[in-house]
Write a structure and sequence with these properties.
By secondary structure, the chain is α/β, with parallel strands linked by helices. It has four domains: about 220 residues, Growth Hormone, Chain: A (Up-down Bundle), CATH 1.20.1250; about 180 residues, 3-Layer(aba) Sandwich (Rossmann fold); about 110 residues; about 70 residues, no CATH class. The chain has 33 helices and eleven strands. The strands form two sheets. Strands 7-6-5-8-9-11-10 form a seven-stranded mixed sheet, with helices on both faces. A four-stranded antiparallel sheet has the order 1-2-3-4. The protein starts with 14 loop residues before the first helix and ends in a 14-residue tail after the last helix.
């Protein structure tokens, strides 16, 4: 029979064991702080301060509560250790439920003020507060003496000693070695081991020992069976609803939420725990995510590449360049192709980004094998403090006010500091304290470039005119901005007045190039009813209305003023089978071979020449596998055209299906390619097309219905799962007025 032991009859545990238990609590607390920070950052943004606040508050609550209501004396609380293990294990084991809570709170965060603080604090409280309270209570029991006995020095020092051990373990690489999930499970295991050890030594309290072992087993089982998910760590919950967001901060029903979850899980090829952040590599476009925030790849290539090239064009002799961060290596790679640049030093402390750069060679001209490029594996601030090198250009892809002054000391006379920023206000204020001259540029839809120096940049029009007519500037302006020439180059300038030395620039042509470029980026005019015919044509082209684009272009009159205008005219004319398309396509072929072949395919299709159209589509898909710079809307329309041809002749569909087996360069439009294969396949080969989406198929009723019927007809091993998924979708669909009145679609 279990006996309730009073302090007078409690087992005489040695001080060494008690000190060891206190060390364990300190060590687990230190291990879990970076784990909680890593788990919360993808949900609420930078969470370092939040984690410490929750940990201290919870520990204080637990300590005071245990002192106020707990029994006197020190004892080795086996059940307490088990409860702590369960409190540490359960919140992350809930997985997507915690991420969903954070996503539901994003609209509150967007309101700002106290509501933002509440929205950020609640996930942190769910994740870390229960464990902090229990650990604080344990700490109170272990280091506090009886009323007639003061705690020993060993007890008071044991907890910080354990915390120091945990901090050292994290600093020497425990997190990257074990991963976030591994470190979390190790912490649960340590607490469970402490509970079981305590239970064994407290052998006379059999009931308490049984509860300790049972709760410890439950904690271990929870952390083995569950854990942080890809959607949680890399789904972009913390940036939902922002310009960088991958998710909608609101959703219609459970199916809409699950659709977004499936999209984000399917979008990632792999994910690891890096030195300072969680890093995930995207399947399409060579982008990556740091704690859920999307970066790099084709998405950011316009800003990454052009930021360095603009700085190099405005500096009279840019021989030595420092890039603060490798990213996907686009900035360093394009800068290194400039014939004037002799050396590019790149500072990066995250090894995972080297792996990403290696996978993205076509994006940056294989920068890692370029002899001009030298990689410095260190932190940015440490490099700037320790190096004695000076540079003509320093490019900072991410804004950090701490490095601005340090970077200024590393600039040569006449050197330029190139600061990328999404919010010009904060960055400009920080730069103005160090640099007298600042010139703003817009280098992509959501990105600004601030060119700072002790003197204003020199605008040598003769030099710039010569540069933009040659590689790499000509290719960059064409592929990344869809413009050309001096007017195209200055379409990025956001100066309030034309910079000194640019009096010979045709600013009307600059404004037209800026409009074409921003429409290509998807920045449609706010007032869609009052536009010029040329602007309307460009907008219709980006929206896929080719006939309207051609009509509006003809109303506007005039010649195309850039690469995208020529593509607009060629593809829109092909939709109406214009005889001049062949000549237009030939003009495109030099720099845009995939688009040229797609244009000719459309012309043949509209002339009812399906075999010739198929041949041209095959050429377009081959070119898109060779180069990542195809215009995505045009390539997507080529995929749609393949579906039209297959619907008329299944034999053509089989040829196109085979041609789309390999991904395009850098995974460009990978989801569109796979969906096209689903449309192209016949009933006998459909299983291969649908299997490419497993284990996270698009959560859409039509797709799930076709998938279930395909697997059923093929007697596929996933037939049962497909049927359950379709049933789950329909059970979660709200009732509609027309249910039961209209026949079910095939």
């Amino acid at each position: 029979m279990d006996r309730d032991l009073s302090p007078a009859t409690a087992p005489d545990f040695s001080d060494g064991i008690l000190i060891g238990a206190a060390v364990l609590i300190g060590c687990v607390s230190a291990l879990m702080v970076p784990v909680w920070r890593r788990l919360l950052t993808p949900l609420v943004g930078d969470a370092g301060g939040l984690v410490l606040a929750v940990l201290l508050a919870g520990a204080g609550i637990g300590f005071i509560t245990a002192r106020r209501f707990g029994s006197e004396g020190r004892a080795l609380p086996s059940v307490g250790f088990a409860i702590a293990a369960l409190a540490v294990a359960l919140p992350p084991a809930l997985g997507d439920r915690v991420a969903t809570l954070a996503l539901l709170l994003r609209p509150l965060a967007s309101a700002g003020g106290a509501l933002r603080s509440l929205a950020d604090a609640l996930p942190g409280m769910v994740l870390a507060l229960p464990a902090s309270i229990v650990l604080g209570a344990l700490l109170s029991r272990l280091v506090a003496g009886r009323e007639d006995q003061a705690p020993g020095v060993g007890h008071l020092l044991a907890v910080p000693l354990g915390a120091a051990a945990g901090v050292v373990a994290c600093n020497v690489g425990l997190l990257p070695a074990l991963s976030i999930a591994g470190t979390w499970r190790a912490s649960v295991g340590l607490l469970a081991a402490g509970a079981i050890t305590s239970a064994i030594r407290d052998g006379r309290a059999r009931r308490r020992a049984f509860f300790a072992v049972a709760l410890s087993s439950l904690a271990v089982g929870a952390c083995i069976a569950g854990g942080p998910t890809t959607f949680w760590l890399h789904g972009g919950v913390g940036v939902a609803g922002t310009e960088r967001g991958l998710l909608s901060a609101s959703f219609d029903d459970r199916n809409d939420l699950r659709r977004q979850m499936a999209e984000q899980r399917r979008a990632l090829l792999w994910a690891i725990d890096g030195v300072g952040s969680g890093v995930a590599f995207e399947r399409s476009g060579c982008g990556y995510r740091l704690d859920g925030v999307p970066n790099g790849g084709l998405r950011d290539a316009p800003g990454d590449a052009m930021s360095g090239l603009i700085g190099a064009a405005l500096h009279p002799a840019p021989r030595r360049v420092l890039v603060l961060g490798l990213g996907s290596a686009t900035s360093a790679g394009w800068l290194a192709t400039s014939p004037e640049v002799e050396r590019v030093d790149v500072v990066e402390h995250e090894p995972a980004l080297e792996r990403i750069a290696d996978l993205c060679a076509p994006l940056h001209h294989d920068v890692l094998s370029n002899p001009k490029v030298h990689l410095i594996r260190d932190r940015t601030a440490a490099t700037l403090r320790s190096t004695s090198e000076t540079y003509d250009l320093i490019l900072a892809p991410r804004f950090d006010p701490e490095i601005v002054e340090a970077a200024a000391r590393r600039l040569e006379p006449g050197g330029l500091f190139l600061q990328r920023a999404r919010d010009a206000g904060e960055a400009r204020t920080a730069l103005e304290a160090t640099f007298p001259a600042i010139e703003p540029w817009r280098v992509q839809a959501s990105g600004l470039l601030l060119i700072a120096g002790r003197e204003s940049p020199r605008h040598d029009l003769d030099r710039i005119r010569d540069l933009v007519s040659q590689p790499p500037y000509r290719a960059a302006l064409d592929w990344l901005w869809g413009v050309e020439g001096v007017a195209g180059f200055y379409s990025g300038s956001r100066a309030d007045v034309p910079p000194a030395g640019t009096g010979g620039v045709d600013w009307a042509a600059v404004a037209d190039a800026r409009q074409a470029r921003e429409l290509a980026w998807g920045l449609l005019p706010a007032n869609l009813n009052v536009t010029t015919s040329r602007e309307s044509a460009r907008r219709a082209f980006q929206q896929g209305d080719l006939r309207r684009a051609l009509v509006d272009w003809r109303l506007a009159g005039g010649e195309p003023r850039g690469p995208l205008d020529r593509l607009l005219l060629a593809e829109s004319s092909a939709e109406l089978s214009d005889d001049r398309v062949q000549e237009m396509a030939e003009a495109l072929r030099v720099t845009r071979p995939a688009e040229a072949a797609a244009v000719l395919a459309r012309r043949h299709a509209r002339r009812r020449e399906p075999n010739e159209a198929t041949d041209r589509l095959l050429a377009a898909f081959h070119a898109a596998r060779e180069s990542p710079w195809a215009h995505p809307p045009t390539l997507q329309r080529a995929l749609d055209l393949a579906g039209e041809l297959a619907a008329e002749d299944p034999r053509l569909g089989a040829r196109l299906f085979a041609a789309l087996a390999e991904p395009f360069a850098l995974g460009l439009l990978d989801d569109g390619r796979l969906r096209a294969r689903v449309r192209l396949t016949g009933s006998t080969g459909c299983a291969r097309a649908f299997a490419a989406f497993e284990p996270h198929p698009p959560w859409e009723e039509d797709f799930l219905r076709r998938r279930q019927r395909c697997y059923e007809s093929a007697n596929h091993q996933l037939e049962g799962r497909a049927a359950r998924d379709l049933r789950t979708f329909r059970d979660a669909t709200p009732p509609r007025l027309e249910d039961g009145l209209l026949p079910e679609e095939d």
